[in-house]
Amino acid sequence: MRVIIVGAGQVGESIAADLSDAHDVVIVERDPDRVEEINYSLDVLAVEGDGTSLTALEEANVADADMVIASTDDDETNIVVSSTVKALSDAFTIARVKNTEYLRTWQRSRTAFGVDFMVCTYLLAAESIVRVVGLPAARDADTFADGRVEMAEFDVGAESPISGQTVAEADTYDSLTFAALIRDEELLIPTGTTAIRADDRLVVIGTPRSVRQFAGDVAPEEAALSGEVVIVGGSEIGYHVARLLSDRGVSARLLEQDADRARWLAEELPDTMVMETDATDIEFLEREHIGDAEVIVSALDSDEKNLLASLLAERVGTERSVAVIDQSEYVDLFEAVGIDVGINPREVVAEEITRFTRAGGAENVALVENGLAEVLEVEVDEDSPLVGKPIRESIHSLPADVVIGAITRGGEYVVPRGGTELEAGDHVVLFVETEHADEVSAAL
């Protein structure tokens, strides 16, 4: 596949890095220094130019492109890029936007703006945060098959009841698969005899009910969200987190320092208590019993502020912190110094866009461990080597090792076991290392 990416920011670079091994990737970028950096660091062709210009797109040979991804940091530029591409090519266009009004307009008419698919950075980040908040013991969570299947990552603490058990001993669930185990930065595919150790990270796939049941066993003290959520910052992400939590009946308080913004938020979020205040005022935090909150979500306009707000809230007693981290290289650092979960909006968007580039047309993709592995949802066609034979036999015909975590058939969940036979049209949620994702997806 020939893919043109307009914009070499963090999102564009992340997508290019993911695609460069299996696809012909061209990046169009206005900044000459950035063009030089990309050409030096990635196995792609970066060309200097304005992606809204016919000349620049023609220089990138857009007529032969299969897909064009507009990923600059400016919404209007990305929309203009998509419209311009449609005048020159039949390529599939993807536009990244921050303003949800553009997304609403596009959703009403999927041909609007010349955009074939639109992703909203702030909304996707908020949805990711809400999934993690709703499953308090998890580091990451994602849903598949219209919510019938859930994938989640869990850290195994020294006090966890399953620490020291084998996978066979820990697997007491009727619809859960232990897909992977990460130990000392090494990815392992577990068997029944694999021992689970403290500090391991487990990736499980199953029904939402079984995943939540497992969460209660891996960390009983964090199993269910029963307390209040405090949201620091009435940014677009903070607003959407509050709205989504309200839709789920979760109690939340939102702290916003700007008076006009706080007033607007109070009007738009009638079920959320909006408080005009500085979240770094520790006297306020203590006076308003912020420490009684179960989760704090920091969605301020800078990484440093989010780190400070999260650490202060934890200091006064808040059990768990989730922070928006704009710089992807800060995620591991912030988690090391005390943030429980860091969410990078650009990585969330890159993950959403990546699914369109999978050779077999994956319907959903979740990246695991910074792209080390992927969880894919793929519809099995009649020529798939998995059809008509038990999984224990057919899985060996795939070009790489995979773990089939879940199957949905006709909208119903099917528990994958060694004797299960797949049928054409089944939706399979599977775990695979990223380097083999394209060939496995194509084989299905």
User: Structural class, please?
Assistant: alpha/beta
Weakly predicted, low-confidence segments: none
Number of strands: 22
CATH fold type of the largest domain: Rossmann fold
Instruction: Give the end-to-end Cα distance, rounded to a whole number of Å.
Output: 18 Å
Largest sheet: 6 strands, parallel
- Which architecture of the largest domain per CATH? 3-Layer(aba) Sandwich
Spatial order of the strands forming the largest sheet = 3-2-1-4-5-6
The top level CATH class name of the largest domain: Alpha Beta
Oligomer: single chain
The best one-word shape is: globular
Number of domains: 3
Number of helices: 16
Q: Tell me what portion of residues adopts beta-strand conformation.
A: 25-35%
- Kindly report the name of the CATH homologous superfamily of the largest domain: NAD(P)-binding Rossmann-like Domain
In round numbers, the mean pLDDT is: 89
Q: Cα-atom Rg, whole angstroms? A: 22 Å
Task: Set out the fold topology.
Blueprint: E1 2-6, H1 10-19, E2 24-29, H2 32-41, E3 45-48, H3 54-59, E4 67-70, H4 75-88, E5 92-97, H5 100-108, E6 117-120, H6 121-134, E7 138-144, E8 149-155, H7 167-170, E9 176-183, E10 186-188, E11 201-206, H8 208-218, E12 229-232, H9 236-247, E13 252-256, H10 259-268, E14 273-276, H11 282-287, E15 295-298, H12 303-315, E16 320-324, H13 331-336, E17 341-343, H14 345-354, E18 364-368, E19 373-379, H15 391-394, E20 402-409, E21 412-414, E22 427-433, H16 437-443
Parallel strand pairs: 1-2, 1-4, 2-3, 4-5, 5-6, 12-13, 12-15, 13-14, 15-16, 16-17
Antiparallel strand pairs: 7-8, 8-11, 9-10, 9-11, 18-19, 19-22, 20-21, 20-22
Helix pairs in contact: 1-14, 6-9, 6-14
